[in-house]
Amino acid sequence: MTTTAVRSQEPAPETEARRRAGSPARPALLIVGAVGLVVTAWLVCNAFLAFAYHPGWFLNSKILIGLLGLVFGIGGAVVFFRFLNMVIEGMPSRLSEGLIPYAFLLPALSLLGLMLLYPTVQTVVYSFANADSTDWVGLENYTTIFSTGEFWQALLNNVLWILIVPIITVAFGLAVAVLADKLSPQGEKISKSLIFLPMSISFVGASTIWGLIYTFRAPDTNQTGLLNAILVGLGGDPQPWLQIDSARLNSLLLMVILIWLQTGFAMVLISSAIKGVPEDTIEAGRMDGASEIRIFWQVVFPQVRPTLLAVFITVLILVLKVFDIIYVMTNGRDNSDVIANLFFRKLFVEQQAGQASAIVVVLLLMVVPILIFQVRSYKAQEANR
Q1: Which of 11, 68, 355, 376 is the most core-located residue (most Cβ within 10 A)?
Q2: Which helix (H) or strand (E) holds 4?
Q3: Rounded to 5°, angle at Cα 246 from 241 and 250
Q4: How much is the average pLDDT of 226-248?
């Protein structure tokens, strides 16, 4: 009787095989989901095309178009994912279980591919074409840009920006974070708010503000620029600051603008890292008789080093792409050009799409190693946690 009871509890061979095979496909659900996906994508795309090309259909009302854009954008996304889920559910269960993560990542990855990957590949292709991208010229564009002094001048300036701006930005951010942490809670809030305030200003706006500081006027007129007003007040002669390329002074003055903008960003992240340092490690150092400076360098600094590296790399990538400040302040005159501004001028002023694409490819090659290093650093940090 016992043997019979045990055998009755064991699943039948057919039942076990069916369980392992999973549920079969449901063609009707699969077809409905697929058709719904196509129709939803078609409707949403055409709706946004209508917003762009036929605003008269919507009474030329930007408010109405904006509201309808929200409805079609959010609603379309919900409906799209609902039909996508139906497609997954209509597949055999063993297949659908493996496809679910990839299916829901597919729209986001498709948009990233359309907005980032495709333009990158197209730019690389255009770098081997002529000025209007109608014929292949091989490596001629690269030969041309590497043989011109303006490219090497821009590249040298980019290197100077890389060597100076990220280090000073991180140093200032670290100093402000440490000093602000010593203030009262109210004083810390006020000081950090003032330091972070430039982050709310666009690069163009910041350049305009600093233009008022660097402005130069003829010696016989009133100086509206702050630096020249101080210099004249001390008995000196006004200087055209942004035209002085000796020792790269004009480029250094432009770097000050980006440092001013990014110090608040560095301060916020570094301050959060400092506050995350366990208090018991700091107290242990104090009990051992270590000074505050030694505690900072031997206890606090090693624990916030990953954040410092992250901030440094983020600012470094930003520096490689810097454009707005140079374009607004000097437009590359007086040996102050950088690669991004040179690209803009080649493409939109000189109408040399091939050379502009080649310049961008060079910039891309400069950024990629930094991105790889950043990813590896993050992986190493995660592994050490």
Answers
A1: 355
A2: helix 2-9
A3: 35
A4: 92
The gap between the terminal CA atoms of the chain, to the nearest Å, is: 57
Q: Which long-range contacts link 185-192 to residues 24+ away (Cβ below 8 Å)?
A: 192/264, 192/267, 192/268, 192/271
CA distance readout (Å), 322 to 46, 158, 207, 246, 343 = 36, 9, 12, 22, 12
Phi, psi at 136, each rounded to 5°: -80, 140
C-beta of residue 215 within 8 angstroms of C-beta of residue 221: no
> Taking residues 358-376, what's their average pLDDT?
88
Determine the Cα–Cα distance for residues 334 and 214; give it in Å rounded to an integer.
15
Assign 136 a pLDDT band (cuts: 50, 70, 90).
very high
Q: Report pTM.
A: 0.79
Please give the pLDDT value at position 286. Answer: 85
CA–CA distances in Å: residue 80 to residues 12, 76, 86, 381: 41, 6, 10, 37
For residues 363 and 40, give the distance between their C-alpha atoms in angstroms, rounded to a whole number. Answer: 39
Question: Quick check: helix, strand or coil at residue 183?
Answer: coil
Q: DSSP string of 272-312? A: HHHHTS-HHHHHHHHHTT--HHHHIIIIIHHHHHHHHHHHH
